[in-house]
Amino acid sequence: xxxxxxxxxxxxxxxxxxxxxxxxxxxxxxxxxxxxxxxxxxxxxxxxxxxxxxxxxxxxxxxxxxxxxxxxxxxxxxxxxxxxxxxxxxxxxxxxxxxxxxxx
Length: 104
Prior knowledge:
Number of helices: 3
CATH class: Mainly Alpha
Strand content: under 5%
Shape: elongated
Number of domains: 1
CATH superfamily: Phosphotransferase system, lactose/cellobiose-type IIA subunit
Structural class: mainly alpha
CATH architecture: Up-down Bundle
Helix content: over 70%
Number of strands: 0
Largest sheet: none
Low-confidence stretches: none
Distance between the termini: 52 Å
């Protein structure tokens, strides 16, 4: 896999996980406003974006498993960090949504 292909995959992961992260923050705002249905929808939308990012990651792993040499660059490390942080943030948001609903 050449550098350009790797960078395209990394930016796809960053873009989609960044979109998901924005949606999670929108869900937090909806929770603060008491709009739990909107928060739930934003978290579902965030999950859809994360699935796109995860698919790009899975494609790389499948290529690697198939014997394609993949040179890890700092942008890929950043992309992986971005995705995993967003996944964790969404999990926390799902728990917070349930807590908000119990409090109100």
